[in-house]
């Protein structure tokens, strides 16, 4: 069977507020990916545009962007699964190439969240939950993840200080990532100092410092079939395993509040398809929209047994030199989270790692990388395994 | 009197001048579900009846939000309540933050949960701590 590879990656710097329009913002990521793949618009056979539409002023952005990028008359499609939109795009692109419909497909992820206030975006993000039965009571994303943090604390004895360790690690690597929004090393003191803005409770037990920040940004990933990839790319990165799963929107339908079953299911599918196990993974990007989410990811992905996620971060095994480096680009916590662009940014990081081009963030000689991207509170989950061979 | 609507049609029924929170009881498998849906979520049967839900439940998990969300001012206590019939319901807990504990007994109350800009009052439900004699925290 013919394989599919990632042959070009690009992203904008993630920023609090991008000064231009979505067209100009997406163009920056597009230009970087096209330069990386050394391609022209004629090489792109189709585009998949990914965002979470509740933040978009532009309706049906795929047509507008395809025109602006000079990608007419090729087809363009729009894909959405909240924060996991652009890895959903990766799965769809893979299918289009495997089906033989298109040889080279571009996945564009973007979000310009600064056009609405932080309070409004929290409320809109809350609408990504169940708008009939939960959102009327004043829900927002941090409150849901807070209940998972409480669940994990109750069941396993996880502490607020364990969660702080995740944030400290992400800040360590955010310093090295010139695309990240927050590039300052943080210490545990900021959580202990009541005067620090990071220590304030947002949704108990989560503090401001446990949460990632909204950002503006775009990502662009180019994938191609084996023949094209081998002919055009110096270092193609192969898509070896893809897993995708869902869970109930209404949290009342979830039995457990200390794990995300959709992420576990997606991980199992991806490992099976790639024929590898968690211990084979050399570098991973996980969806750390909240510190607790990274701990849950360790456990969903099999990097730690259920309940042992906190010990993994405590022993620094997820640092660059550890057994399984996780989010050594700073993750969402340091990079910022432009919802639709996030999955593409995670893929870009793992591709650069596998090519040995990650600069100061480079892990020693990785062969297999993994991307864990979650939409909503474990409503959608995509796990992708990429490899050098 | 200003106009009143229910936050979601069918969520509450009016009985003897009071609003009662309604779920579905399946006539085939006997399980109760909330919110009311077309098919029983446990056995896919269409053979169901609308029943009032238990008014006292146990707080399964909660979080206190310290920023305003929509019409609500902080602190907003949101949580999941497990009812004796095996159904889990989401709602706000109206209580002092320091009194709220996982596992405490709460009872449902119905009333206005917010007022629209045009003055329309939106009816819904929320939970309050139960008295000790009913197994509550205080
Ligand atoms: Zn039934």
Name its key features.
heterodimer; A: 389 residues; alpha/beta; Peroxisomal Thiolase, Chain A, domain 1; nine-stranded mixed β-sheet; two-stranded antiparallel ribbon; 13 helices; globular; B: 138 residues; mainly beta; six-stranded mixed β-sheet; four-stranded antiparallel β-sheet; binds zinc ion
Structure write-up:
The complex is a heterodimer of chains A (389) and B (138). Chain A is α/β, with parallel strands linked by helices. Chain A has helices at residues 22-37, 61-68, 85-98, 118-126, 141-156, 160-174, 189-192, 226-232, 261-274, 291-300, 309-314, 331-335, 342-355; strands spanning 4-11, 46-50, 76-79, 104-112, 201-203, 206-207, 216-225, 237-246, 283-285, 368-375, 380-387. Chain A has a domain at 4-117 and 214-232: Peroxisomal Thiolase, Chain A, domain 1, CATH 3.40.47. Chain A contains 13 helices and 11 strands. In chain A, the strands form 2 sheets. A 9-stranded mixed beta sheet of chain A has the order 3-2-4-7-1-8-11-10-9, with helices on both faces. A two-stranded antiparallel sheet of chain A has the order 5-6. The model of chain A has no long low-confidence stretch (mean pLDDT 94). With 138 residues, chain B is mostly beta strands. Chain B has one domain. Chain B has strands at residues 4-6, 12-15, 18-26, 32-33, 48-52, 56-65, 76-82, 88-92, 105-115, 121-129. Bound molecules: zinc ion (ZN). Zinc ion is lined by residues 26, 28-29, 31, 40, 42-43, 45 of chain B. Zinc ion binds at residues 26, 28-29, 31, 40, 42-43, 45 of chain B.
Average pLDDT taken over every residue of chain A = 94
Cα-atom radius of gyration of chain A: 19 Å
Number of helices of chain A: 13
The count of strands of chain B amounts to: 10
Overall 3D shape of chain A: globular
- Over the alpha carbons, how many angstroms does the gyration radius of chain B reach? 16 Å
What is the element string of chain A, with H for helices and E for strands?
Answer: EHEHEHEHHHHEEEHEHEHHHHEE
Tally of strands of chain A? 11
CATH fold-level topology of the domain at 4-117 and 214-232 in chain A? Peroxisomal Thiolase, Chain A, domain 1
SS class of chain B = mainly beta
Q: What is the residue-mean pLDDT of chain B, rounded to a whole number? A: 87
Question: What would CATH call the class of the domain at 4-117 and 214-232 in chain A?
Answer: Alpha Beta
Please give the CATH architecture of the domain at 4-117 and 214-232 in chain A: 3-Layer(aba) Sandwich
Could you give a short account of the major beta sheet of chain B? Answer: 6 strands, mixed
Query: Which protein chains are joined by the largest interface, and how many residues does each one contribute?
Result: A-B, 33 and 33 residues
Q: What structural class do you assign from the helix and strand content of chain A?
A: alpha/beta
DSSP helical segment count of chain B: 0
């Amino acid at each position: 069977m013919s394989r599919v590879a990632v042959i070009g990656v690009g992203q904008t710097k993630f920023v609090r507020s991008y000064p231009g329009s979505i067209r100009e913002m997406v163009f920056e990521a597009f230009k970087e990916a096209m330069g990386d793949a050394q391609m022209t618009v004629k090489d792109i056979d189709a585009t998949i545009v990914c965002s979470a539409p509740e933040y978009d002023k532009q309706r049906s952005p795929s047509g507008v962007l395809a025109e602006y990028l000079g990608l007419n008359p090729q087809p363009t499609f729009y894909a959405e699964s909240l924060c996991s939109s652009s890895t959903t795009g990766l799965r769809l692109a893979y299918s289009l190439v495997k089906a033989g419909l298109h040889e080279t497909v571009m996945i564009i992820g973007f979000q310009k969240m600064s056009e609405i206030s932080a309070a409004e975006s929290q409320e809109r993000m809350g609408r990504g939950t169940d708008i009939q039965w939960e959102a009327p009571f004043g829900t927002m994303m941090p409150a849901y993840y807070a209940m998972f943090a409480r669940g994990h604390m109750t069941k396993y004895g996880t502490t607020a200080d364990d969660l702080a360790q995740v944030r400290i690690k992400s800040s360590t690597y955010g310093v090295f990532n010139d695309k990240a929004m927050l590039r300052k090393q943080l210490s545990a003191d900021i959580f202990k100092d009541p005067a620090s803005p990071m220590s304030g409770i947002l949704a108990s037990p989560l503090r401001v410092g446990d949460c990632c920040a909204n950002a503006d940004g775009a990502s662009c990933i180019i994938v191609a079939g084996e023949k094209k990839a081998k002919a055009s790319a110096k270092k193609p990165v192969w898509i070896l395993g893809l897993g995708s799963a869902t869970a109930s929107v209404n949290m009342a339908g979830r039995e457990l509040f200390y794990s995300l079953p959709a992420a576990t299911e997606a991980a199992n599918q991806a490992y099976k398809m790639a024929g590898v196990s968690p211990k084979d993974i050399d570098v991973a990007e996980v969806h750390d929209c909240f510190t607790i989410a990274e701990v849950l990811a360790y456990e969903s992905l099999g990097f730690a047994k259920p309940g042992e996620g906190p010990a993994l971060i405590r022993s620094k095994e997820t640092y660059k030199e550890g057994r399984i480096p996780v989010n050594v680009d700073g993750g969402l916590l340091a990079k910022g989270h432009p919802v639709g662009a996030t999955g593409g940014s995670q893929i870009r990081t793992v591709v650069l790692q596998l090519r040995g081009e990650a600069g100061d963030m480079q892990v020693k000689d990785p062969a297999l990388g993994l991307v864990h991207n979650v939409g909503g509170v474990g409503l959608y989950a995509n796990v992708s395994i990429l490899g050098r061979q | 009197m200003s106009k009143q609507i229910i936050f979601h049609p069918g969520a509450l029924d009016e009985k003897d001048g009071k609003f009662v929170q309604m779920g579905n009881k399946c006539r085939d498998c006997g399980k109760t579900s909330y919110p009311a849906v077309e098919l029983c979520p446990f056995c896919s049967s269409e053979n169901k009846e609308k029943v009032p839900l238990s008014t006292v439940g146990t707080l399964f998990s909660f979080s206190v939000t310290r920023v305003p969300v929509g019409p609500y001012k902080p602190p907003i206590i949101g949580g999941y309540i497990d009812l004796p019939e095996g159904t889990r319901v989401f709602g706000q807990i109206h209580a002092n933050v320091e009194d709220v504990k996982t596992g405490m007994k709460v009872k449902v109350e119905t009333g206005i949960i917010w007022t629209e800009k045009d003055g329309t009052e939106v009816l819904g439900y929320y939970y309050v701590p139960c008295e000790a004699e009913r197994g509550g925290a205080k």
